[in-house]
Design a protein that fits this description.
about 180 residues; alpha+beta; 2 domains; six-stranded mixed β-sheet; 10 strands; about 35% helix
Length: about 180
């Protein structure tokens, strides 16, 4: 069992990012990422995104550094890879599972209950929102392009908090991206 990383080359948020994968299990991947101090939100279905400054921390926990092509080959061989084409369906499936676990009737476009993983970015659409809360007692972060998106995010948070409390939690922890159903 080994965890692998490629060379950071993808610019975002003012730094370069790479990918971190496991050759055997997501549990191993989560454990190594936590040991290296990567934020749980940097998980994306089958890999973690990691910033270049985390290189030394990853090396200290035994991550093996490989080239991009080798990393892709290892991920495919692991059986954990989610192809780019299959990612929207994987997100939809995860959202439906998390909504059902909460008892939420409406399935948002992208929903994560808990701290591990992140939802899609906020779309450039009226009334869309992206809501994040990492602590049930902490304030939520609601991103929206307009007041209707902010209101929709606040209304959903109220519902999510109610459902989380009914399950015995102190409030909702997770991330959600939603908005009006896009026209097809």
């Amino acid at each position: 069992m080994t965890v692998y990383a490629d060379t950071p080359r993808w610019p975002r948020h003012g730094m370069l990012w790479g990918h971190l994968i496991s050759d055997t299990s997501l549990e191993e991947l989560h454990e190594v990422a936590a040991d290296a101090g990567l934020p749980p939100r940097s998980f994306d279905l089958d890999h973690y995104d990691w910033p270049a400054p985390a290189h030394d921390a990853l090396a200290e926990v035994g991550v093996r550094f490989v080239g991009d092509r080798e990393l892709t080959r290892i991920l495919i061989g692991s059986g954990l890879r989610i192809k780019l084409l299959d990612r929207p369906e994987a997100r939809s499936r995860r959202s439906a599972e998390h909504a059902a676990a909460l008892g939420l009737d409406h399935v948002p476009r992208d929903l994560i209950v808990g701290l591990i993983g992140h939802v899609d970015p906020l779309p450039a659409e009226p009334a869309a929102f992206r809501l994040t809360r990492d602590d049930p007692h902490g304030p939520p972060r609601i991103e929206a392009h307009d007041a209707s998106g902010t209101r929709a995010g606040q209304q959903l948070l109220t519902e999510l908090d109610t459902l989380a409390r009914a399950r015995g939690d102190t409030g909702f922890v997770g991330q959600v991206m939603d908005g009006p159903t896009p026209a097809t």
